[in-house]
Amino acid sequence: MKNNSLGLKARIRSFGFALKGLKVFIRDEANAKIQLFAAFLAIVFGIAFEISSLEWLMVSLAISIVIILEN
C-alpha cells in the first residue's frame, strides 16, 4: 500500500501555496480587506471584554464561515 503522508518539505511547500492563496484573496476580492478588518476588530473586542472559551469558539467559527463563503 502506498504511503500518502506528506514529508516536511511537502508540508512547507503546501503552506507556501496557502499563503499565496491568501495574498490573492486579499488582493483580488473586493470585500476581503473589510472582512479581515472586521475580524481583527472582533478579536480585539474579544480580548478587551475577556470573553469565555465558548464565546471565542463562536467568534472563530463566525470569522471562518464569513471568510470561507467569500472565497
Count of beta strands? 0
Distance between the termini: 36 Å
Which geometry do the CA atoms define?
A: extended
Give the ordered list of helices and strands: HHH
> Beta-strand level of the residues, as a percent range?
under 5%
Query: Can you summarize the main beta sheet?
Result: none
Q: Work out the helicity level.
A: over 70%
Description:
By secondary structure, the protein is an all-alpha fold. The chain has a domain at 29-71. Helices cover 79% and strands 0% of the residues. The protein has three helices and no strands.
How is this fold's topology laid out?
Layout: H1 8-28, H2 32-48, H3 53-70
Helix pairs in contact: 2-3
Short description:
With 71 residues, this protein is an all-alpha fold. The protein is built from three helices and no strands.
Keywords:
79% helix, 71 residues, mainly alpha, 3 helices
